[in-house]
Every structure is written in C-alpha cells, then in structure tokens.
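The following block was generated as part of the benchmark described in Methods. Ligand: zinc ion.
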Amino acid sequence: MTDPDRRPDAGRPLAEADRQPDADRQPLAPALTVTLLGTGTSTGVPVLGCGCAVCTSDDPRDARLRTSAHVVAHADAGDVHLQIDAGPDFRTQALRAGLTAVDALLVTHEHFDHVTGLDDLRPFFFRIKEPIPVYTSERTADALRTMFRYVFERTYPGASVLDLHPVDGPFTAASRTAPAARVEVTPLRAPHGRFEVMGFRIGTFAYLTDVGAVPAETRAALAGVETLVLDGLRPAPHPTHLTFAQAAEVAADVGARQTWLTHVTHDVRHADAHLPDGVELAYDGLVLEIPAPAPTA
Ligand SMILES: [Zn+2]
Ligand SMILES: [Zn+2]
Ligand SMILES: [Zn+2]
C-alpha cells in the first residue's frame, strides 16, 4: 500500500514545513557507522571456476562478496541498525562483521544478489519479537512477496515476521528495542536496465548501487552528500551498471567529498585501480564513520 498523501517531489529532502514538530524530534540525521559487508558483483569474486589474476589474488581486498551494507545510526535514544540488502552472502557477512541487530531492511531491488539472504534475518527476529520492516519500492515489494511467499503470507510458523513497507518518499526507521531512536532515510532513484533501483540517503551519506546512469533529479537529491557509495562495475561499458569513469563523473558532478565504488567485477585488482582523487574502490569490511551533519540555524 502506498500512502496516498505522499508528496510528488518524493526523493528530495524534506521541506522545512514537512518536518516533524520540535517536541517530537530526535536528531534524525545522527552520526553513522557504515560497514560495507560486500562490494562484489552478482557472481562474487573470485568467480566460480576462474583462474584470473584477480580471482587468484592473495590481496584480501580482491575477494568481493555480494554487495550490501550495514548502517548503524547513533541516535540520542539509541542505535538504529539498518541493513541495506541481504544477498546470498548475508549470513557469512553478518558473522564476519559481528552484527548484533537489524532494525530494518532496506532493499535496493529484487535481483538475486541483493535479496536471497532475506530469511537469514530470522535470528534477529527471534531475539526481538517485533516485526522487521522492509523498506523498498512498490515493485520490489511485489517481487519479494512472490519470492518469499511463505514469509510474507505467514503460513509457516518458524518464519520470521517481516513487514513490507513500500516507500516512494522519505521515511523514518526506528530501533525495534528503543523506538525513540530514529533515523530519516530519503530514497533515491536511478535506472538499472528496464527498471528502477532504489538508493538511500541518510544525512551526508548516500548509497546507490546497480545503476546504469544517475538522472538529473537524483543528482540534485545528492547535493550536499559527502560520502557516497556508488556502483562502479568495471572500466569497460555495461548496459546496466556504471563504469569507473561514469561513476567518477557522477561523483564529481554531485561534489561528494569521498566516493567508494562498489559492485566490482574481477576485471581489476584493487591495487591496480587508477581512479581520480576522491574516488576509490571499496572493499569488503570497509568501515566508514560519518559525522552528524552540522546543525543549521
Ligand atoms: Zn547487483
Ligand atoms: Zn576471475
Ligand atoms: Zn541488479
């Protein structure tokens, strides 16, 4: 269900008039700790059966699990744990990163490499018996309903309770243990082949993967972003992903201070990526500390 009151300018920062009353407010753009759990393309790197220099590299930065991220928002009332995508490597990634909670799942799109681990969220539900909200586009929500029918129709008693929340504008995610701890998330949109992918902006941080281009309105919505995690598949063109050069162009255009390329193939060793200043290849396990935006008077 889409909220009929949603504004047509969804995806842009909230206008001052739309913000919640002061009495009701927590800092909704708190400091963030972002862990890039995976930075690899859909096959993962090493690619099965491949003996190339990247797939056989002993540089740990060349081992790329499927792309996803974990964001901890440090609100005054407590931490809010946001999981962005849960692909086939999610359980391994969660163990590796020592994840202790997931308060909400944010899904970019329904491709295999981004959603296959959805039901591996179960232990986080068993520990805290509050539904885990899933924020995504209406289309991806429909796809998830079909792909994980036994989860969303609640026909199997051992399944976790995940609630689909289709969004088309800014939303607030809350801690499941301390509901006063909240963080505001603004969806971003960009094409990925024939359909749109949802990216997410929180304060001065934005995450946008699996995009073949970044349209003008999304670039405008990225204004003021300082740390950007952006699709950067490989140097060579691809119909549904940005190349390194295309990603660097977007990064420069929106003025991000630091851009990290993700969803990377086995075409380039981490050590051999030649990128402009302010743009780097991300790698699995990279932790980004994002300060809260400076208060505006
Ligand atoms: Zn992907
Ligand atoms: Zn290879
Ligand atoms: Zn994709």
